[in-house]
Backbone:
């Protein structure tokens, strides 16, 4: 429990901690559920909004506790409808969350760290370094705040943990956040099937994702140890390509699920026919699909986006080998909101000129 004399952050309490808290106040246990529903299902920002608590209990609660939500949100809207949310945290740090519309889907890409300790060469976030891990309530707040942004006829359909940071490097907070997101009685009631956690390759922690019941994506991007060391040096120190793929083969995938491999295509680097052939061999026999992501360029990057025809050739080679393969559309590139582009507007950076529509809330 939080320290005495400090205001307790209600959003930072687990269900058990909330029950303990209401018992200390000599309130009935059901009060815990009431408060939790206000926090998650009704997205209350103030205790005074909790109108099914008596005035006296609300007053008591106000003296003891508070609700820590992000303090500020700036929305950058891309020409393709993608919305990048820049959220300011309690300590002034900024994180990025992206709402991506696509046909019937509205996907929210969620961050788990401020910056990232890994330094994947094709990713802008990696150039920031790691500032800190997000707390579980800061992860959930991204979903709550994105919901605040929606029009009356919009609903988020998918959650992907592919924003800033390596989710498996902040696993405890991620697991607590997923509990809040999936709890049906007081939480947001998300089906774990609609949640994807993506890792750069922390092989020893994959099985812990299985325990969360969500889907797993692996950011692969290379077909030889040497290539992966060049593109993803930090994570290659932690686990080789061989040990990562071995962990993927051991992964206890539920019968109706499959792994997703993400593969960022870099012109002349990993997009050649020989790369496609090696990828086919590496994935042989695995229940999986592959998402190809043509590189999204950012200032200062040494890589280039491959031409469309090379992307299609790569896709065909995989498809002919019987692999389910999709080319991910690049969304939100004009607001640096596409895959690998997050971070330019965040902690410790000079802001770029914002040409797309900017609004604040
Ligand atoms: S790709 Fe993911 S793991 Fe790699 S640097 Fe970027 S945020 Fe970190």
Residues:
């Amino acid at each position: 429990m939080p320290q005495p004399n400090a205001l307790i952050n209600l959003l930072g309490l687990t269900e058990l901690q909330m029950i303990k808290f209401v018992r200390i106040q000599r309130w009935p246990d059901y009060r815990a559920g009431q408060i939790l529903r206000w926090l998650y299902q009704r997205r209350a920002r103030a205790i005074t909004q909790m109108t099914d608590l008596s005035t006296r209990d609300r007053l008591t609660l106000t003296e003891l506790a508070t609700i820590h939500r992000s303090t500020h949100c700036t929305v950058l809207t891309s020409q393709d409808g993608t919305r990048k949310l820049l959220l300011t945290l309690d300590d002034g740090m900024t994180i990025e969350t992206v709402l991506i519309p696509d046909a019937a889907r509205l996907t929210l890409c969620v961050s788990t760290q401020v910056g990232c300790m890994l330094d994947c060469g094709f990713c802008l976030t990696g150039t920031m370094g790691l500032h800190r891990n997000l707390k579980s309530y800061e992860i959930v707040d991204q979903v709550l705040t994105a919901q605040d942004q929606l029009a009356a006829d919009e609903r988020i359909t998918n959650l992907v943990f592919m924003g800033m940071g390596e989710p498996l490097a902040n696993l405890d907070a991620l697991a607590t956040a997923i509990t809040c997101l999936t709890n049906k009685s007081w939480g947001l009631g998300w089906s774990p099937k609609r949640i994807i956690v993506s890792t750069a390759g922390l092989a020893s922690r994959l099985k812990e994702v299985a325990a969360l019941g969500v889907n797993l994506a692996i950011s692969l991007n290379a077909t030889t140890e040497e290539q992966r060391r060049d593109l993803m040096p930090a994570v290659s120190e932690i686990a080789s390509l061989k040990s990562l793929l071995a962990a993927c083969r051991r992964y206890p995938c539920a019968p109706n699920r499959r792994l997703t491999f993400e593969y960022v295509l870099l012109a002349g680097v990993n997009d050649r026919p020989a790369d496609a052939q090696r990828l086919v061999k590496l994935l042989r026999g695995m229940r999986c699909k592959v998402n190809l992501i043509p590189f999204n360029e950012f200032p200062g990057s040494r890589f280039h986006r491959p031409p469309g025809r090379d992307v299609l050739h790569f896709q065909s080679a995989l498809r002919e080998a019987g692999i389910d393969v999709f080319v991910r559309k690049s969304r939100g590139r004009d607001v640096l909101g596409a895959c690998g582009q997050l971070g330019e507007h965040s902690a410790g950076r000079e802001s770029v000129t914002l040409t797309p529509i900017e609004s604040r809330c």
